[in-house]
Amino acid sequence: MVLIGNIAPVYGLKLIVNAQAKGHITPRCIRNFVSRETLVVVNVKTDGQKGDGQVLGMSVIDSLGNEYARPKDIVGDIKVAFTPHNDAAFDVCFENVLTTGQHYGLNREVDLDIDIGADARDWNAVAQSEKLKPMEVELRRIEESIDEIVNRMDYLKAREYKLRDTNESTNDRVKFFAIGTLVSLLGLSIWQVAYLRQYFRSKHLI
């Protein structure tokens, strides 16, 4: 199952991941988009304990096939941070595997928070290292958020131009194909008329 999240920098979700037999596992995934060189922090909190008959695993993979993390047998809190080098969607997926000899009906509850960009930075650490006042920290955070929005808009604009060029190219190909088809049909019709006229003349029918 894939849950498509909104294009939002921060959100929290609560998932129930049912334990399944090995070889018959359907992962539960959350998808979001991130611009290149943007920090992403995935915070996960789960219930249960090791040895309770199920093994919860997680993977973080983008649409280009890059894998950023694959922790196994997750219990308690875990944090994954990564910075992609390309504009891409990424999936955070969970798989809960039944251990041998255990019964069905087990599950793990997962609290998932994904922070992207300015919201993923540790602003307390920034304030301490650069000796910034609270207002200065807030202004820095807002400035970075605005930059991310501008970059996102630039990406969408570039994608729109690319799609428009593709659409125009497709329209030109369709137009030339239609003209070629029309010319071919016209030529075939002329040939058929000439052939039939020649045939009837050879039979002295006309």
Could you describe the 3D structure shown?
With 206 residues, the protein is α+β, with helices and mostly antiparallel strands. Helix content is 37%, strand content 32%. The protein has two helices and nine strands. The strands form two sheets. Strands 1-3-8-5-6 form a five-stranded mixed sheet, with no helix packed on it. Helix 1 (123-130) crosses helix 2 (134-202). The termini are far apart. Mean pLDDT is 84; it is low at 1-10.
Question: What order do the helices and strands come in, and which of them pair?
Answer:
Layout: E1 2-4, E2 10-18, E3 28-34, E4 40-46, E5 54-62, E6 67-69, E7 76-82, E8 88-98, E9 107-116, H1 123-130, H2 134-202
Parallel strand pairs: 1-3
Antiparallel strand pairs: 2-9, 3-8, 4-7, 4-9, 5-6, 5-8
Helix pairs in contact: 1-2
Describe the structure concisely.
By secondary structure, the protein is of the alpha+beta class. It contains two helices and nine strands, in the order βββββββββαα.
Features:
single chain; 206 residues; alpha+beta; five-stranded mixed sheet; four-stranded antiparallel sheet; 37% helix
Shape, principal axes of CA atoms? elongated
In the sheet with the most strands, the strands line up as 1-3-8-5-6
Number of strands: 9
Distance between the termini: 73 Å
Calculate the mean pLDDT score and round it. 84
- Weakly predicted, low-confidence segments: 1-10
Order of helices and strands: EEEEEEEEEHH
Number of helical stretches of at least 4 residues: 2
